[in-house]
Write a structure and sequence with these properties.
Blueprint: E1 5-6, H1 7-21, H2 34-37, H3 39-55, E2 62-67, H4 73-85, H5 87-92, E3 93-98, H6 102-111, E4 118-120, E5 131-136, E6 145-150, E7 153-160, E8 163-168, E9 184-187, H7 189-205, E10 207-214, E11 226-229, E12 232-234, E13 244-246, H8 251-260, E14 264-270, H9 271-277, H10 280-290, H11 295-306, H12 308-312, E15 315-321
Parallel strand pairs: 2-3, 2-5, 3-4, 5-10
Antiparallel strand pairs: 1-7, 6-7, 6-9, 7-8, 10-15, 11-12, 11-13, 14-15
Helix pairs in contact: 3-4, 3-10, 7-8, 10-11
The structure holds S-adenosyl-L-homocysteine.
Length: about 325
């Protein structure tokens, strides 16, 4: 029998192997993300960054950072949009991409050649200065730990031969003292560490970070580990590295870690309301009028992103930012 591996270590190993080798996005891949559904998504996030830059007092230069840029589609759409409406922001920004996968770095290099990006393995090597940071479906890929309530204790889940085994919990952040028997508590330590590091950075050097991902607004019990292969649910433990493994993002935990580090928190707001406030539906209607042959596709793509029964409610937007910033675009009513 192989030795049991703590779930987060299993997930980290599986994710690194999975992304290192492939471009998993789109109809031929394993899953589809918002920027691959509609160009209006990246365009709206570009305009979000441009307005936030104005609210910051138009620092020049300014870092534009994307965490986990996938195919580079979101950023290519964002840059095209800001070039048109706010060329001063386009001229001031310096593009930095945080991406571990060599295969995806190559795809990003082709998509973003004109913007001459600099790549990083993590946020620690980003240069100092005011920054605008975008992250779509990045946090959900970070490894989680799972704890199971047994009696008055928490046990921890390990993976052995494709199945969970429970063992004594290793040192962990504080867990709830009361929980129903069998309750599962998930903790994503890298997401909390990232929020703390970015929160401290934004509070001292200025800027804002926008996270869009799926998960509940408030922390709670429940297990959400899932895997997708060719757009179908798959066993997350069966074949590490060959399927996409994600988990719900605990937005409350991310917000608390950012706030504790000195940042202000805006949101979370449901993605549907956020994107509508940014004008995504209007933009999709413009695209539909400009290319009638594609109109049906444009409008149904926008609907998928904003409708509550699509991605509009489960997905949320959350911002960490410098405490002096006013409400950022899309968060005015939050
Ligand atoms: N934002 C893109 C891609 C989401 S998939 C989109 O919306 O389409 C997750 C992305 O994060 C991939 O680019 C993956 O290679 C990257 N990634 C996952 N874990 C990472 C980590 N620990 N460090 C850096 N990049 C990571």
């Amino acid at each position: 029998m192989s030795t049991p591996e703590r779930l987060d270590r299993f997930m980290a190993r599986a994710a690194a192997a999975y992304y290192a080798a492939r471009d998993p996005f789109g109809a031929k891949g394993d899953f589809t993300t918002s920027p691959e559904i509609s160009q209006a998504f990246g365009e709206c996030l570009g305009l979000w960054a441009a307005v936030a830059w104005q609210q910051m007092g138009r620092p020049d230069p300014v870092l534009l950072v994307e965490l986990g840029p996938g195919r580079g589609t979101l950023m290519a759409d964002a840059l095209r949009a800001v070039t048109g409406v706010m060329p001063a922001f386009r001229a001031a920004l310096r593009l930095h991409l945080v991406e571990q996968s060599p295969a995806l770095r190559a795809v990003q290099a082709a998509a973003l050649r004109d913007a001459a990006p600099t790549w990083h393995d993590g946020i620690d090597s980003l240069p100092p200065g005011p920054a605008l940071i975008l992250a779509n479906e990045f946090l959900d890929a970070l490894p989680i730990r799972q704890f199971v309530r047994r009696g008055d204790d928490w046990r921890e889940r390990f993976v052995q031969a494709g199945a969970f085994v429970e063992a004594t919990a290793e040192p962990a952040p504080p867990l709830p003292t009361e929980a129903p028997e069998g309750a599962v508590q998930e903790i994503c330590e890298p997401a909390r560490a990232l929020a703390a590091a970015l929160g401290a950075r934004l509070a001292s050097q200025g800027g804002a970070a926008l996270f869009i991902d799926y998960g509940p607004a408030r922390s709670g019990f429940g297990e959400s580990l899932q895997a997708l292969s060719a757009h179908r649910a798959a066993d997350p433990l069966a074949s590490p590295g060959s399927v996409d493994i994600t988990a719900h993002v605990d937005f409350q935990a991310v917000a608390e870690a950012g706030r504790a580090a000195g940042a202000a928190v805006q949101g979370p707001v449901p993605q549907g309301l956020f994107l509508q406030a940014l004008g995504l539906v209007t933009r999709a209607a413009m695209l539909a009028r400009a290319a009638p042959a594609q109109a049906g596709h444009q409008l149904s793509a926008a609907q998928r992103l904003v409708a509550p029964e699509g991605m509009g409610r489960l997905f949320k937007a959350l911002a960490l930012c410098h405490p002096a910033l006013p409400p950022l675009p899309g968060f005015e009513s939050a």
